[in-house]
Amino acid sequence: MAMQLKPFTLYLGQSQPRNLNFPNKHKIITCCSVRDSVSNTQNHKLVHQFNPKIPIEEAVTPPTSWYTDPSFFHLELDRVFYTGWQVVGSTEQIKDALDFFTGRLGDVEFVVCRDESGKVRAFHNVCRHHASLLASGSGQKSCFVCPYHGWTYGLNGALLKATRISGMRDFNLKDFGLIPIKVATWGPFVLINLEKESLSLNEVDSHNVASEWLGSCSEILSTNGVDSSLSYVCRREYTIECNWKVFCDNYLDGGYHVPYAHKGLASGLKLDSYSISMFERVSIQSCESNSGKSKENYDRLGRKPIYAFIYPNFMINRYGPWMDTNLVLPLGPNKCQVVFDYYLDHSLKDDKDYIENSLQDSEIVQIEDIVLCEGVQKGLQSPAYRVGRYAPRVEQAMHHFHCLLYENLTK
């Protein structure tokens, strides 16, 4: 089943800062800006300590400052996460009218909902009165009521009621609706775009959004079983004491660590068949399963599992009847959250024993990876380490990731 992309564009206006006391409805708050000029100069030096033009055979990895420096972390938020399309959730979370879920990306609090007509919308999850968060968690709501002073907003973002405002001058309800965010769905994924600039609805189409997010990989992924036909199983979340890039690097080492850290997983794979393909903003790793092993392993892993990394922080793992996704959310220079969503072939959605056993196997791998990543972060903070090297035959995708980061950070 091929995926259908459904874009939704909400008017953001121009990118000039908004006057908070007397807002102009044709302008918005500039939510993301690089910090002061001193940190800009410092960050410029840190970025250029990595050279993407050096071939992988001679290159060194980014320096430890990329993984530990607080000002560099804020630069990444501005240049990497506040630009372009970012996955924030699953369509399962908003499958019905009035469904909503909330989240945080860097300093941006957001809420995604499906309004009464079935249209998907996204907003900054901040009351326009005194900045209280409006909603939390997920569920169903017919409107958003601020828990602080009761200001009430429709699922279309309009301010419906402002309490106890008698005597307030120059106030118009229409000027104080929720600040919208561009949102789209692709397959089972929900994406938002925090770019300051906005396009009108007739300037955004499926091809443009798919091209921006996946480039030439959209058809490759859809023909390899990444689609909406799978049944949603569950979500698991892990808070890890490491920089978000450490988790990504671990994923992108071309199976280098698998025989050493994941012996159970390695037993079901033919690691000598590992292959890596790179595209504009995507890398795909694949490996044949070990058909000589038990039928259980073969059924879970499938004939040829694929592992797709979509820059900057989203992974899709498709194997056998399973698909799971890893969303890596930066929480600070030394901390991230990884959100796992599991999907399964519809024919197996009621097989509780099979699901439980497969999830247990997955949990083992995740715990093993957490131990690795937290150990790496501690090593990165040691004065004994500054830069490393790439294993050219297996770590091409990691090098590709670092080059894409450099490109974003120097724009």
How would you explain this protein's 3D organization?
With 411 residues, the chain is of the alpha+beta class. It folds into two domains: 85-194, Rieske Iron-sulfur Protein; 223-410, Naphthalene 1,2-dioxygenase Alpha Subunit, Chain A, domain 1, CATH 3.90.380. It is built from eleven helices and 18 strands. The chain has helices spanning 37-47, 65-68, 70-81, 206-214, 218-223, 244-251, 258-261, 263-266, 295-301, 352-380, 396-409, and strands spanning 5-8, 85-90, 99-105, 108-114, 120-124, 138-140, 144-145, 152-153, 159-161, 182-186, 189-193, 231-240, 275-278, 282-286, 306-310, 314-319, 322-332, 335-344. It has a seven-stranded antiparallel beta sheet with strand order 12-18-17-16-15-14-13. It has a four-stranded antiparallel beta sheet with strand order 1-10-11-2, covered by helices on one side. β13 and β14 form a beta hairpin. The longest helix has 29 residues, at 352-380. The chain is globular. The two termini are 38 Å apart.
What's the helix and strand layout?
Blueprint: E1 5-8, H1 37-47, H2 65-68, H3 70-81, E2 85-90, E3 99-105, E4 108-114, E5 120-124, E6 138-140, E7 144-145, E8 152-153, E9 159-161, E10 182-186, E11 189-193, H4 206-214, H5 218-223, E12 231-240, H6 244-251, H7 258-261, H8 263-266, E13 275-278, E14 282-286, H9 295-301, E15 306-310, E16 314-319, E17 322-332, E18 335-344, H10 352-380, H11 396-409
Antiparallel strand pairs: 1-10, 2-11, 3-4, 3-6, 4-5, 7-8, 8-9, 10-11, 12-18, 13-14, 14-15, 15-16, 16-17, 17-18
